[in-house]
Amino acid sequence: VVLDNALWEGMPLAPVRRLAGDLDHAVLCFHGDLIPALIDQLIAEAEARSKGISIEDSKKRIDDPDTVFVDLRDVRELERDGMIPGAFHAPRGMLEFWVDPDSPYYKPVFAEGKTFILYCQADWRGVLAAATLADMGMPNVLHLEGGYGEWKKAGAPTAVRDNTKREKKKA
Q1: What is the DSSP string of 70-97?
Q2: Cys-Cys with 87: which of 9, 71, 77, 162 at CB 3.0–4.6 Å?
Q3: Rounded to an integer, what distance in angstroms lies between the CA atom of residue 36 and that of residue 43?
Q4: Is residue 131 within 8 Å of residue 49, measured between CB atoms?
Q5: Res. 50: pLDDT tops 90
Q6: What is the rounded (10 degree) CA torsion for 2, 37, 93, 24?
Q7: Percentage of residues in the chain with pLDDT exceeding 70?
């Protein structure tokens, strides 16, 4: 929902937030200025519907063949900052399509019965994605608490993104 600043200037935000509360997954903008409380609310609700895993516990699963780390970040973030070694890249905007077996974009990796640890930079996209997949009925989905930023701060292993597929497409 986008509201014109001139119409709403000086109006208390409580009635606007009540209006938003009546809409499914509403995000209000005042000409591009996001109301942070709504994002905080969406993330809090998603945290209640999803399960997180700590950096320490997730580091123990780095070589576990029954665990797949799923990097939700944009490709530019992967190229700039690296990623968790062996992680599968699933851009956040495509995740639901890649998970749904009825989608033309379906990826079989999501049907292997493994535990999936979703992560982004700060765990906002990770939390939202984990809740969405839980809502879709997908079992064994966790989000990496604190995201990749905290992973790196903890000194956990990182890797450069493998660009061999991109190199082949260019050739």
Answers
A1: EE-S-HHHHHHH-B-TTPEE--TTTHHH
A2: 71
A3: 11
A4: yes
A5: yes
A6: -70
A7: 73
Helices (H), the chain: 5-8, 13-21, 36-48, 55-59, 75-81, 95-99, 124-135, 147-153, 164-170
The candidate with the shortest Cα–Cα distance to 50, out of 108, 129, 125, 149, is 129
What is the distance of C-alpha 144 from the center of its chain? Answer: 10
Contacts of 96 (CB under 8 A, 6+ apart): 103, 132, 133, 136
Pick left, alpha or beta for residue 152 (phi over 0 → left; psi -120 to 50 → alpha; otherwise beta). alpha
Host H or E run for residue 68: strand 67-71
pLDDT tens, residue by residue, 2-42: 444 444 454 444 444 444 544 444 445 455 555 666 888 89
Distance CA 8, CA 84 (A): 45
pLDDT of 113 strictly over 80: yes
The encoded tokens of residue 20 equal: 């938003």
More confident residue, 81 or 166: 81
Question: Backbone phi, then psi, for 34, in 5-degree steps?
Answer: -70, 140
Structure tokens at 56: 């320490």
pLDDT for res 164 = 54
